[in-house]
């Protein structure tokens, strides 16, 4: 039973209760009864006042009709009452009562026949009666009430707002006409509340629904306990609260409705035969469901189903309300299906809804609603099973629903929304664009008809967004994805945070953002997509039927981000989510193929990274099954075939199995052939086919295969719109294919076209930086190979170097940046080599500066003083400083996700990642803003060669050594020089540097001098480690085949001596003091970074010669690291000294105790400002305070390097550890010298040779101007001697200045002096060389 039917039935009950007070006659035939009442005609003629007799006769017949339902009686009654009115004088006092009686009779007949003419006549009669009844008359109450009921009846038929307005006016007068304690007031308020509710349903006026609720509540308050109408009042209140909740979504209204319905049910439960009992059950069901939809509480869903099943049980066959009850029961089964995904629930839903429709008469007002609901259930079963007959039937019945509904009907937007959704489902397997266009038009119409604050608007926006997203996938039109994201975002924004539908809408928002990311490459989109989908999963119960959908989609988004960033954690998260989704996907599920194909992509991606054959085998197995499960006409089959083809190609590239290649090409061709023109995925499919065809050509040399590759790649590029994120990949692919054809046919146009496409890919403003970087490097190399004199080589490598910095941007953590940089190690040297071949030493220098030590450079930029900008624009400077500080913090402190974390932890980390990305984006925007200011054009841009030359210190030379496979060169920089000096090194090679590095490393490791904390070292006894600082020494024997001597000799003959000769530096006399030797700052690259240039020489008993005899050596990671210190001679403020001889978990180093005490005694004797703290006497926090108070620090302790995340490299204390990240965060304004008397503090990492990932470079980045460090383990015996000699020299060199300060300006000379002293105490054996060589000086 619908709301209208129920309200009118209540009216009839109340009418009988209130106004049917006349005496009911005993049953007898109507004719006999009338005959007994009518006198003879003669008597009538003789009597005056015949109309009074007729009135009595008409009333008697009306009462008889009420008792028997015999229409003859009411027809006769109306005829007699009409005759009586004709005979009644206009001024007779009984006329108004007779008119009232006639109106009531017409009303009674209308309730039986539904003839609208009767209710109109009733209104006419009752209006006259009311007009004739004076105010205050006892009968005015009943007449106004009946008139209001009649207007309500006619409004039901006419939908004329005037009728419902007249009903409300009459009922308000009735209410106003009685006193507060009148027994009829609750009934009158009930009628008024129903009328307000009816008008609200017609107009949506919030004032009407508020007035309705107020009227019902007042009626309930005035009703005495046990009142017969109290259940009806409670029911009506609940109904009004539900209506208001659907408009406002105030949860208090929903809860209040449930309370009202439950109270009404308790009153009527004792009599289940009461026809009202089923109504209350149904309404209680509705209220439970509204709350379930909002909160997802299973108790509410269970309560709703229990109530509705009971209502269906007690409603007899043939009852007019049974279709209504069955329809709602079907909706409940649908809800349970949505919640748990059990197919039997949706099948039950379809069955009972079909029965409801069969029981609904043609033309019934509820038929459209029931047809719509059946369509929804059929659509949901189709989504589960993929049975096309279900979705075809769904569209058919939903079209009927729309066709049967007027444009003004409030249900039309509902029917349109569901019809559009079914059309969308039909499109997905068929790919019919006309159906999709109809779906979008239908859904847009539904949204347009929905008021802004309507509770259903979010769902309709959500569905429209889904349709637009599907069309974007099909056509690739940007405006569709923009509108899809907008619709989905608006749907989420309008959905209450506790609404049950929020997870679905978040999931869909994530889908549209992920799709836009694939089109534009904007990392913000994929970050927001994953965040939304994480929230969807987090808000969904583990047993929810839609959870596998959310999991699969978030897996796809992780996969998309992996393709862009290469972050292995993303592919791990993708596989975990997709496997979880698959484990909850039964055989026969419509989405099984989708999920199998998706996880296949993830396995294939992991295979490409880890090369585990099991992954690619699992990928192919899953994707074959996806193809087998998909019908030949399904719109998604091309995608599954394409994915399978790519996986087969990957396995071929690893195994060389030609059968895999043939099957790959077959699948990829099939995918292309099945994809219609204009499909958004067609360019990608063609590009993949082109790549596979090229692979086949490479093994077959068949020109036809090459032609297929070219045609496919050309067509792919032609179909890809400008601005598409995949455009650079397709341009690069075509360039590769054309170059293959060039090598085969040697036709110059192919080479030119290849260069054009590679250049276009490299210089594109869109697409992943790593794709553009690949294209730029390929472009540069081919230019260098085929056009070695072309100036475009410089343009190409310049592009590549710029793109290299983008691949490891500030939006990533420091750890991730270093991981990405491993993939491009050596690029700066290659570019520099090409520039040097072209005679451009200046450009070579700039590229080495720009492309090396990228992360340290980024950290330096974030800490750059802003004094000049502060003067020009203080507000802008403050914003730059704030963003730089937060970026610095995010890059070094942000925790990365891992599989063991909870979902809530991952959500929090993803939020941090998004905030980090937004900061990086704002940083770029701020840089652009600053650079637009006159005078600030070069703000934080890479330093030019001329700028570097202007800042070279006057007391030495800088020598940058470029080591590349093609050539090796030195670039020397002098103060006052206009151009760098290019020094070719033809005798030194990349191969030599690599061989010497590996040989020296093996020698050190075999003798435990580069042992990075192995178990053997950690478990050694104190006696075994006494002579080495934390590392066990070799236990006897020689050091091998004279490795050290050979390495140092080659470094001298092939590298150092030729450079010294070109620099004009001659060997010093024996008695020349160290401070008079020239300074050289070495800036090595590649494998040379791990070799001791400062010790290059020939070490023999006679005729020894080494670099130490010519110059004082220091190292710098980049030229900029030195030049930006020049002129910054701030005053220093003493030295802090600490030793940590017995760190828990590390070998003891007792020599550190005497080392620091000796330095302390020397400092106090010299009157220097000094502080000392040993072992547990100093905490990490206190050490940091000392570092702020004192300009220099001497750390005699263990240290560990973290090459993967250098900022987590640390010095070990008795109480915790001091990380480089912590040091960098401090404001070390007085930082001057750091003496790191620990092992391997400048060792570095082979795969990141250009990034200087060691503690020495980190201390420079932290602000220290000079650092003494070690390349490998140092002896606990020699370390105190070196330190004593070092400080003795420093203080003797600065004594002339007086005062108690400590200045490390002579530290390089001091170390040179100390090492020469140590050499005098040792011989020239390899063991002796290894004792002093590890000490190195960094900085100024």
From TrEMBL:
<protein>
    <submittedName>
        <fullName>CHAT domain-containing protein</fullName>
    </submittedName>
</protein>
<feature type="compositionally biased region" description="Acidic residues">
    <location>
        <begin position="1016"/>
        <end position="1026"/>
    </location>
</feature>
<feature type="domain" description="CHAT">
    <location>
        <begin position="1046"/>
        <end position="1339"/>
    </location>
</feature>
<dbReference type="InterPro" id="IPR011990">
    <property type="entry name" value="TPR-like_helical_dom_sf"/>
</dbReference>
<feature type="region of interest" description="Disordered">
    <location>
        <begin position="1011"/>
        <end position="1032"/>
    </location>
</feature>
<dbReference type="InterPro" id="IPR024983">
    <property type="entry name" value="CHAT_dom"/>
</dbReference>
<dbReference type="Pfam" id="PF12770">
    <property type="entry name" value="CHAT"/>
</dbReference>
């Amino acid at each position: 039973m619908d709301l209208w039917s129920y309200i009118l039935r209540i009216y009839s009950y109340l009418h009988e209760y209130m106004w049917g007070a006349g005496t009911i006659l005993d049953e007898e035939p109507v004719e006999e009864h009338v005959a007994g009442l009518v006198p003879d005609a003669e008597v009538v003629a003789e009597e005056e006042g015949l109309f009074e007799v007729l009135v009595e006769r008409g009333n008697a017949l009306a009462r008889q009709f009420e008792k028997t339902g015999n229409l003859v009686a009411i027809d006769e009654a109306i005829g007699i009452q009409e005759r009586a009115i004709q005979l009644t004088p206009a001024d007779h006092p009984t006329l108004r009562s007779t008119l009232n009686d006639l109106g009531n009779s017409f009303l009674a007949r209308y309730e039986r026949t539904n003839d609208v003419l009767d209710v109109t006549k009733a209104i006419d009669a009752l209006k006259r009666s009311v007009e004739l009844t004076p105010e205050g008359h006892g009968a005015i109450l009943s007449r106004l009430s009946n008139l209001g009921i009649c207007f309500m009846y006619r409004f039901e038929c006419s939908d004329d707002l005037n009728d419902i307005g007249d009903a409300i006016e009459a009922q308000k007068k009735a209410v106003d006409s009685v006193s507060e304690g009148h027994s009829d007031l609750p009934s009158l308020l009930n009628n008024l509340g129903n009328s307000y509710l009816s008008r609200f349903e017609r107009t949506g006026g919030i004032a009407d629904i508020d007035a309705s609720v107020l009227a019902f509540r007042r009626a309930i308050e005035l009703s005495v306990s046990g009142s017969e109408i109290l259940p009806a009042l409670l029911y009506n209140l609940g109904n009004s609260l539900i209506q208001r909740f659907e408009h406002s979504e105030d949860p208090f209204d929903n809860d209040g409705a449930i309370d009202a319905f439950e109270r009404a049910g308790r009153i009527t439960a004792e009599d289940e035969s009461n026809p009202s009992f089923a109504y209350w059950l149904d309404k209680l069901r509705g209220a439970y469901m509204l709350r379930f939809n909002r909160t997802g509480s299973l108790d509410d869903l269970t309560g709703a189903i229990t109530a509705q099943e009971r209502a269906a049980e007690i409603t007899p066959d043939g009852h007019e309300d049974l279709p209504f009850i069955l329809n709602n029961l079907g909706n409940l089964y649908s809800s349970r299906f949505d919640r748990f995904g059990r197919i039997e629930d949706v099948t039950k839903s379809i069955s009972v809804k079909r029965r409801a429709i069969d029981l609904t008469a043609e033309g019934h007002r509820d038929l459209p609603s029931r047809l719509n609901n059946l369509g929804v259930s059929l659509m949901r079963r189709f989504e589960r099973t993929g049975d096309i007959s279900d979705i075809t039937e769904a569209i058919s019945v939903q079209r009927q629903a729309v066709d049967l509904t007027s444009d003004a009907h409030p249900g039309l937007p509902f029917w349109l929304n569901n019809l559009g959704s079914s059309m969308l489902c039909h499109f997905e397997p068929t790919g019919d664009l006309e159906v999709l266009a109809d779906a979008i038009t239908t859904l847009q119409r539904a949204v347009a008809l929905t008021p802004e604050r309507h509770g259903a608007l979010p769902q309709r926006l959500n569905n429209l967004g889904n349709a637009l997203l599907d069309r974007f996938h099909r056509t690739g039109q940007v405006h569709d994805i923009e509108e899809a994201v907008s619709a989905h975002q608006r749907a989420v924004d309008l959905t209450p945070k506790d609404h049950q539908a929020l997870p679905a809408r978040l999931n869909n928002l994530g889908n549209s953002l992920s799709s836009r990311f694939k089109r534009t490459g904007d990392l913000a989109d994929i970050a927001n997509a994953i965040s939304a989908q994480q929230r969807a999963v987090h808000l969904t119960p583990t047993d929810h039927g839609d959870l596998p959908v959310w999991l699969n989609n978030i897996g796809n988004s992780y996969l998309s981000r992996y393709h862009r960033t290469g972050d292995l954690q993303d592919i791990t998260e993708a596989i975990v989510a997709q496997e979880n989704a698959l484990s909850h996907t039964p055989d026969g599920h419509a989405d099984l193929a989708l999920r199998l194909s998706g996880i296949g992509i993830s396995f294939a991606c992991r295979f490409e990274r880890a090369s585990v054959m099991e992954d690619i085998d699992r990928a192919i197995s899953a994707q074959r099954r996806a193809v087998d499960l998909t019908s030949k006409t399904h719109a998604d089959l091309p995608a599954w075939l394409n994915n399978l083809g790519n996986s087969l190609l990957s396995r071929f590239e690893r195994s060389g199995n030609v059968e895999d290649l043939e099957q790959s090409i077959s699948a990829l061709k099939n995918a292309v052939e099945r994809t219609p023109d204009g499909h958004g995925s067609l360019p990608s499919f063609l590009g993949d086919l082109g790549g596979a065809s090229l692979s086949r050509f490479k093994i077959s040399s068949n020109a036809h295969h090459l032609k297929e590759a070219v045609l496919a790649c050309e067509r792919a590029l032609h179909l890809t719109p400008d601005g598409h994120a995949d455009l650079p990949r397709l341009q690069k692919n075509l360039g590769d294919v054309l170059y293959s054809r060039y090598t085969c046919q040697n036709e110059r146009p192919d080479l030119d076209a290849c260069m054009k496409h590679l250049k276009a890919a490299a210089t594109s403003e869109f697409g992943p930086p790593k794709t553009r970087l690949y294209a730029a490097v390929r472009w540069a190399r081919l230019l260098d190979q085929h056009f070695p004199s072309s100036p475009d080589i410089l343009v190409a490598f310049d592009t590549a170097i710029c793109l290299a910095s983008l691949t490891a941007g500030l939006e990533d953590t420091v750890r991730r940046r270093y991981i990405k940089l491993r993939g491009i190690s050596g690029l700066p040297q290659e570019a520099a080599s090409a520039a040097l071949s072209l005679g451009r030493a200046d450009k070579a220098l700039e590229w080495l500066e720009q492309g090396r030590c990228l992360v340290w450079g980024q950290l330096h930029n974030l800490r750059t003083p802003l004094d000049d900008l502060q003067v020009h624009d203080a507000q802008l400077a403050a914003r730059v400083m704030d963003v730089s500080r937060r970026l610095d913090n995010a890059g070094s402190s942000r925790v990365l996700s891992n599989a063991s974390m909870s979902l809530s932890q991952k959500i929090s980390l993803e939020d941090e990642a998004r905030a980090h990305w937004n900061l990086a984006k704002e940083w770029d925007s701020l840089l652009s803003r600053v650079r637009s200011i006159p005078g600030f054009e070069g703000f934080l841009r890479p330093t030019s060669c001329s700028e570097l030359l202007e800042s070279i210190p006057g007391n030495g030379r800088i020598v940058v050594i470029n080591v590349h496979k093609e050539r090796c060169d030195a670039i020397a920089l002098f103060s006052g020089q206009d151009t760098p000096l290019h020094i070719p090194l033809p005798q030194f090679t990349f191969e030599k540097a690599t061989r010497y590095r590996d040989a020296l490393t093996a020698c050190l490791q075999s003798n435990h001098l580069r042992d990075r904390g192995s178990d053997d070292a950690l478990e050694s006894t104190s006696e075994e480690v006494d002579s080495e600082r934390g590392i066990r020494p070799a236990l006897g024997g020689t050091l091998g085949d004279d490795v050290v001597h050979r390495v140092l000799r080659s470094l001298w003959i092939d590298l150092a001596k030729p450079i010294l000769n070109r620099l004009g530096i001659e060997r010093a006399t024996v008695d020349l003091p160290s401070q008079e030797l020239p300074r050289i700052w070495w800036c090595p690259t590649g494998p040379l970074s791990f070799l001791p240039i400062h010790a290059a020489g020939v070490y023999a008993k006679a005729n020894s010669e080494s670099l130490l005899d010519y110059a004082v050596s220091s190292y710098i990671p980049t030229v900029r690291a030195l030049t930006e210190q020049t002129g910054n001679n701030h005053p220093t403020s003493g030295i802090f000294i600490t030793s940590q001889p017995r760190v828990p978990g590390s070998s003891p180093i007792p020599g550190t105790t005497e080392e620091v005490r000796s330095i302390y005694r020397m400092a106090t004797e010299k009157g220097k400002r000094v502080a000392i703290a040993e072992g547990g006497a100093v905490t990490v926090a206190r050490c940091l305070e000392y570092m702020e108070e004192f300009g220099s620090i001497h750390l005699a302790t263990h240290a560990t390097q973290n090459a993967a995340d250098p900022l987590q490299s640390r010095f070990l204390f008795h109480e915790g550890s001091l990380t480089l990240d912590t040091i960098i965060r401090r404001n070390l304004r007085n930082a001057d010298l750091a003496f790191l008397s620990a092992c391997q503090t400048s060792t570095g990492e082979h795969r990141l040779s250009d990034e200087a990932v060691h503690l020495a470079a980190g201390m420079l980045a932290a602000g220290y101007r000079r650092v003494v460090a070690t390349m490998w383990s140092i002896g606990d015996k020699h370390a105190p001697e070196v330190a004593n000699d070092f400080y003795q020299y420093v203080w003797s060199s600065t004594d002339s200045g007086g005062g108690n300060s400590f200045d490390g300006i002579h530290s390089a000379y001091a170390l040179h002096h100390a090492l020469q002293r140590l050499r005098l105490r040792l011989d020239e054996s390899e063991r002796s060389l290894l004792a002093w060589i590890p000490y190195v000086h960094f900085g100024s």
